[in-house]
Amino acid sequence: MAVGDLSSVLAAVKPNKRTPQYKILLAMYCLGAVKTPVVAADIKNALALHVPQKDLPPNITASLRDYVPLVRLVDKGPPLRWLLTDKGIERLRKQSGLPLPTAAPEGEYGIDVGIVCALEDPEFAAVIEAFGGPAAWQPVGDARYAHVYQACEISTARGTRLRVVGTTSTSMGLTAASIVTTQLVMQFRPRLVMMIGIAAGTRSSNKQFGDVLVADPSVDYNSGKVVMGKGVRDFQPDPYPIGLNARLRSVLHKYRTNNNVFAEIRANWNGKVPLIRNRVHVGPLGAADQVIDDASRVLEIQRNWRKLIGVEMEIYGVYQAARNCVAPRPLAIAMKSICDFGRSDKSDEFKSYAAFTSARYLYEFALQELAR
Predict the structure, then answer these.
(1) SS3 string of the chain?
(2) Are the C-beta atoms of 92 and 29 separated by less than 8 Å?
(3) What is the pLDDT of residues 182-204, one digit of tens each?
(4) 164 burial class (0-12, 13-18, 19+ CB within 10 angstroms)?
(5) For residue 60, what are the domain limits?
(6) Lowest pLDDT segment from 26-35, 228-237, 317-326, 331-340
(7) Least buried of 19, 37, 107, 223, by fewest C-beta within 10 Å?
(8) 231-237 mean pLDDT
(9) Are both 40 and 153 inside the same structural domain?
């Protein structure tokens, strides 16, 4: 329920029964404080659209402190941020006589973007910074789930607001990525799932550290059959590649021509950068539960996927989970940046830079191309 619905629920109670507590709890519910924390100013601004000035609760912060356990303090700020508890929702239901659901109706999306990372650092740390810094994010979600979720909102180039929830998996690999994506979708129902992070690139097309690799398709290159013929072990691939949605592919193609994005990204990075300007590469991105420190292994994979742009360990699990989850199913796209080239002499010199370019590219893509 959005703020615009506040007046209809407010009207469910006679004017002389609309206590300050009812108004405050109702405003929190309509602002989505079941999952996303709000501050006293948010509550006051929401009520001011529907309640005469003389009828506004006089000291909302003090009232919130008195309403525990109907509300819960989740961030001491400043400013203080509050969530509406189950007891608070039950109080509202009893007072209003309305069911007041706490989840998005079946068949409707709950948030705009769900971001999945394999690593807390440097990947998700880069997302936090790209989307406004730690102060812009607040913890959300049900503690019964294994993962820790954080949420923020951003304004797009069109002036609309995007609701974003991000998390990291409990470990690297396809299985963990599939589980974290499934639980993210089940709990928050995003319209779009996006994975960012770091990957190993192939040497074709003059790729650089920090170049963004978009998986289209993602390929489980370990899927197949091991056979023995004439005393030689061989591998016969039998993959099931998963590509991008056609609409996402066309939007991405348009956005790839924006050459100013990487210039701005590089300008905001304080460390070492490649000599050549970074670019976006779209193509087959291999996925498997293995870290590659041998360039010859990349060449082996390229025998079956000659246009391979890189290898990593999670995207195929994310794409599979998004494709096979409960309705409404989200679209999925993955943007990982090159931190090495799968060689035994790899170093961590560009790992943070790769996470930075991946997160910033995702942020700019969201600002320009995504809107409710």
Answers:
(1) CCHHHHHHHHCCCCHHHCCHHHHHHHHHHHCCCCCCCECHHHHHHHHHCCCCHHHCCCCHHHHHHHCCCCEEEEECCCCCEEEECHHHHHHHHHHHCCCCCCCCCCCCCCEEEEEEECCHHHHHHHHHHHCCCHHHCEEECCCCCCCCEEEEEEECCCCCEEEEEEEECCCCCHHHHHHHHHHHHHHHCEEEEEEEEEEEECCHHHCCCCCEEEEEEEEECCCEEEEEECCEEEEEECCCCECCCHHHHHHHHHHHCCCHHHHHHHHCCCCCCCCCCCCEEEEEEEECCCCCCCHHHHHHHHHHCCCCCEEECCHHHHHHHHHHCCCCCCEEEEEEEEEECCCCCCCCCCHHHHHHHHHHHHHHHHHHHCCC
(2) yes
(3) 999 999 999 999 999 999 999 88
(4) buried
(5) 3-96
(6) 228-237
(7) 107
(8) 81
(9) no
Whether residues 53 and 144 fall in one domain: no
What is the predicted pLDDT for the residue at 4? 41
- By the 10 Å C-beta count (0-12 exposed, 13-18 middle, 19+ buried), 334 is classed as buried
Closest CA to 6 of 15, 23, 21: 23
Q: Which two tokens stand for residue 61?
A: 């912060």
Residue 283 falls inside a structural domain: yes
Does residue 104 belong to any structural domain of this protein? no
Number of domains in the chain: 2
User: Residue 214: exposed, middle, or buried by beta-carbon count in 10 A (0-12, 13-18, 19+)?
Assistant: buried
What does each C-alpha distance from 150 to 88, 114, 142 come to in angstroms?
Answer: 22, 10, 11
Q: Which of 69, 96, 123 is the last residue in one of the domains?
A: 96
> Residue 121: which pLDDT band, with cuts at 50, 70 and 90?
very high
Q: Can you tell me the distance from the alpha carbon of 210 to that of 127, in angstroms, rounded to the nearest whole number?
A: 15
For the whole model, what pTM was predicted?
0.71
- pLDDT at residue number 30: 87
Q: Is the pLDDT of residue 357 over 80?
A: yes
Nearest of 145, 182, 148 to residue 165 by alpha carbon: 148
